Amino acid sequence: MLSDAPNVELAITAVKLGALDVLSKPVDGENLLDIVREAIRENHSGLLPRTERQGPSAPFALTPRETEVLQLIATGQANKEIARQLGISPRTVEVHRARIMQKLGARNTADLVRIALTG
Q: Which Gene Ontology biological process is one annotated for this entry (predicted)?
């Protein structure tokens, strides 16, 4: 995570969502390169991504719109139906669905619905 003025709450949330480190601007280029190299090593080491090792993110990580979309997905509605109900485009629903799946560690819609229904 890179921020002008990170606070403790923001840093904790970033780490829970998979951030390797929290850096304040201006950032030292060599330090940034070291962190990027670490992330690449971790990714290529055969380990699961950080978010999968740590399990799904807490529900608070979803935006209010993502929460709305998740609730409608859990009721079995298609992207077009969700888009119509929320007054947004089907493509926007697809983007929200992809982000929700990433944040919650879901591999498919069935996983997503299971996570949504079990809390």
A: regulation of DNA-templated transcription
Domains for the chain: give ranges and CATH numbers.
2-54 (no CATH), 59-118 (1.10.10.10)
**How do the pLDDT tens digits run along the chain, 119 residues long?**
677 776 777 777 777 776 767 777 777 778 777 777 777 776 554 444 444 444 444 445 788 999 899 989 888 899 999 999 999 999 999 999 999 988 888 888 888 888 777 76
Q: Which residues contact 54 (CB under 8 A, 6 or more apart)?
A: 16, 18
pTM, 2 dp: 0.50
Indicate the DSSP class of residue 82: H
